[in-house]
Amino acid sequence: MPRSTGEAARRTGPTRVLVxxxxxxxxxxxxxxxxxxxxxxDVAAEGGQALxxxxxxxxxxxxxxxxxxxxxxxxxxxxxxxxxxxxVIVLSARHxxxxxxxxxxxxxxxxxxxPFGMDELMARVRAxxxxxxxxxxxxxxxGGEGVVETADFTVDLRAKKVGRGGQDVRLxxxxxxxxxxxxxxxxxxxxxxxxxQEVWGPTYTRETNYLRVYMAQLRRKLEADPSHPRHFITExxxxxxxxx
Length: 244
What we know:
The protein is α/β, with parallel strands linked by helices. It has two domains: 5-132, Response regulator (Rossmann fold), CATH 3.40.50; 147-242, Arc Repressor Mutant, subunit A. Helix content is 40%, strand content 19%. The chain is built from nine helices and twelve strands. The chain has helices spanning 5-9, 24-36, 47-57, 73-81, 97-106, 118-132, 173-183, 192-199, 208-222; strands spanning 16-20, 40-44, 61-65, 88-92, 110-113, 147-149, 154-156, 161-164, 167-168, 190-191, 232-235, 239-242. It has a five-stranded parallel β-sheet, sandwiched between helices. It has a four-stranded antiparallel β-sheet with strand order 6-7-8-9, with no helix packed on it. The protein has a three-stranded antiparallel β-sheet with strand order 10-12-11. Strand 11 and strand 12 form a beta hairpin. The protein is globular, with a radius of gyration of 18 Å. Residues 145-244 form the OmpR/PhoB-type domain.
């Protein structure tokens, strides 16, 4: 069985990146810049090859182009999400909001439109790896220790585990980070700007569609009735609250 993202994050050695892009020039540029920053790099030009390499090499982050010759990148994301929480950063020339939402809804952690600055991309890679690292932040999150129990689910902040109905709930690193911030501030309004800055970084404060997509995913996974949420409350135009 492939090991989990958490197990991969605790291994020694350089951070491993899987580059998935069928454009040879772009792939070469990514490999060159990643290796110059001391990352270990694997490369795939097709979706099927990417899924095989992910299972064999256990990358810490995936850089994924959506326009692959054998399958759409969104299908690659869904394939990965069937067994791993590895951060996925989409690199795509597709600029429409619907394309971004589709990729995020499938489980991507970030979306970068081509052309992009290499320094910005590397900053996003570092941020994605930090979010995925279970030991990347001290303690158990901002102001939180122990277990938070609701009528519908249980969150163990220190172990970074979520349970519902006696079963573990699989969250991506980004979903976990968003959940952790909200449940560590029970009953308090957490602004859109604060959530975007803390989860994705200071360059994302206008990407409110990210919040809409990820809050919908948390509700689907944790709320008894996602269309009438009891725990994850939207304050329109302002932010979100977590209620026990």
